[in-house]
Specification:
phosphoprotein; Homeodomain-like_sf; Sig_transdc_resp-reg_receiver; about 10% strand; Rossmann fold; transcription regulation; HTH_AraC
Length: about 525
């Protein structure tokens, strides 16, 4: 700290400046002035932390000097000395906001205690101010991270405003709790607070000599913006951070059973904050392939890949494998897609989620009844919630395969003895449209499969060919009309979808052993 002593009496001024070893009290610079005017000039030049001044001095007196200092620096500590026990002086001193008031002759022990008290108050104020400034910067940093700040350049400027030193290079680090949803939920609120406090302590321990800003670590992902100390090169700073991260994870694992992954940007100016944040987040995408608990360094020229469309040929092959309940082919195709996705530089979590959505769209396109819980919405985002808490590629793939295997198993078992959905869809369509002209091609188009495969699947599931099933249903409907109406036989034929009366009679007789007219006579005696 710096101290300024102002007194027009040489003996007092010299005695206070030289007669006390101020270095013992963490004061490394002492200035002295013979009057208020000289003291004001020295104050503006050196901005001392504490000022000891006599009240009565030629030119600018001590009260006027105190007012000027407090206007310029409200936090400055001023101690007034006076040879007069005048209440008016004391009253004015209180109004100005001086730190203390001492009557001459000065008692050194008492003055030293006043200086120490002023130091303590100054340090407390600076700590509060540092915390307030850091909190403000953290809020702006968090707004930028969440995209809540519309004017991004203004957000960066606000952060700069709250940093005391913006010289040199900064690095942005994005830290993400591994297994956020599962592991943190297993901890009690009290244990979580202890864990956050531990991380805060570790941050302060490592970066105490380097100004830093950190966002709320209670979020799944939080950010640390740190100024590189001049004693470090970029490589040595990175090495020290890797060691710190290793030690931090060791502590977190031992105490709380959790780890954090860290994405690190390249060094840059604080004005390039948006780029630094993007690099740090992009680096964390390495977690998808390599797993958590690791430090990932930003790749030069990183561009996040958020869109991952499946090739059409893959869609067709996968849909065909699902239709045929070919587990081996499904496994191979899905494995291949995730393997190829893992080789894409810059693949983001959004890109992996889109891949999963596309794969599930194919599955539920073939077996729509398996998507019961999502039927309220036709939006493609319906399945993103499934992957909300997933972090690595393997868990994404396992969830997709689990849903595929469950569906294929249910379909292989006939859903408890019922027809598979495609055939149930076909029989429902037949019952609703039997009066119209129906062909294998019509039903194949309705179910979305080839005519040959439809005929094979229908015969296998229902036990009779499609045409025979259709005729049986039409005959059942014809029998109902013959029993309950006075329609003539050819009118009944037309009502149930037959186009040829002779063919209708042949099919009817083959099914019932008699003609339509004879059936009516026996079924409803007295009706012709």
């Amino acid at each position: 700290m710096k101290l300024l002593i102002a007194d027009d009496e040489v003996q007092i001024r010299t005695g206070l400046a030289e007669g006390i070893d101020w270095s013992m009290f963490d004061i490394d610079q002492v200035y002295s002035a013979a009057n208020g005017t000289e003291a004001w000039e020295l104050y503006n030049r050196h901005l001392p932390d504490i000022v000891i001044t006599d009240i009565r001095m030629p030119g600018m007196d001590g009260l006027e000097l105190s007012r000027a200092i407090k206007r310029k620096t409200p936090s400055a500590a001023v101690i007034l000395l006076s040879g007069y026990a005048d209440f008016q002086y004391a009253k004015e001193a209180i109004q100005i906001g001086v730190a203390d008031y001492e009557l001459k002759p000065v008692k050194l022990r008492s003055l030293i205690e006043m200086v120490k008290a002023a130091q303590h108050k100054l340090l407390a104020h600076r700590q509060e101010e540092r915390e307030r400034r850091t909190l403000q910067a953290a809020r702006w940093l968090e707004k930028l991270a969440l995209g809540e700040q519309s004017n991004l350049s203004m957000g960066a400027c606000e952060i700069v405003r709250y940093l005391t030193n913006t010289d040199g290079n900064f690095v942005c680090m994005a830290l993400e709790w591994d297994g956020y949803a599962v592991r943190l939920s297993a901890l009690s609120p009290e244990r979580r607070e202890q864990m956050y406090a531990e991380v805060g302590k570790q941050l302060l321990s490592r970066f105490a000599s380097e100004e830093y800003v950190a966002t709320d670590m209670r979020e799944r992902r939080f950010y640390v913006l740190c100024r590189l100390a001049q004693v470090y090169s970029a490589d040595s700073w990175e090495a020290s951070v890797r060691q710190w991260h290793w030690d931090l994870n060791g502590t977190l694992t031992d105490k709380f059973g959790i780890t954090v992954s860290l994405g690190m940007s390249a060094p840059g100016s604080v004005e390039a904050l948006l780029r630094l944040m993007g690099e740090a987040c992009g680096a964390l995408n390495g977690k998808l392939v390599h797993g958590g608990g690791v430090v990932f360094r930003a790749v030069s020229g990183f561009v996040p890949v958020r869109h991952y469309p499946l090739p059409l040929i893959v869609e067709q092959k996968l849909a065909e494998a699902v239709l045929h309940l070919d587990v081996a082919a499904v496994n191979a195709l899905i494995d291949r897609q995730f393997e190829e996705a893992g080789q894409i530089a810059g693949l983001s979590r959004e890109g992996v989620e889109e891949l999963c959505v596309e794969l599930l769209r194919i599955l539920y396109g073939v077996w729509p009844e398996e998507r019961k819980e999502e039927r309220r919405s036709d939006r493609p985002e319906w399945s993103r919630a499934i992957f909300l808490h997933y972090e690595i590629m393997q868990t994404y793939k396992e969830e997709v395969l689990r849903r595929y295997m469950m569906t294929l198993e249910r379909q292989r078992n006939g859903s408890g003895g019922k027809h598979t959905y495609l055939i149930a869809q076909a029989t429902d369509y037949i019952r609703s449209h039997y009066k119209s002209e129906l062909t294998v091609e019509t039903l194949a188009e309705v179910t979305g499969i080839t005519p040959n495969y439809f005929s094979h699947l229908f015969n296998k599931e229902v036990g009779v060919p499609f045409r025979e099933y259709l005729n049986r249903h039409r005959i059942d409907e014809a029998k109902q009309l013959l029993r309950s109406t006075n329609l003539l036989a050819y009118e009944v034929m037309d009502r149930v979808g037959f186009q040829n009366y002779k063919y209708f009679c042949q099919v009817f007789k083959k099914s019932e052993g008699c003609s339509p007219s004879d059936y009516r006579k026996h079924a409803v005696p007295g009706k012709l």
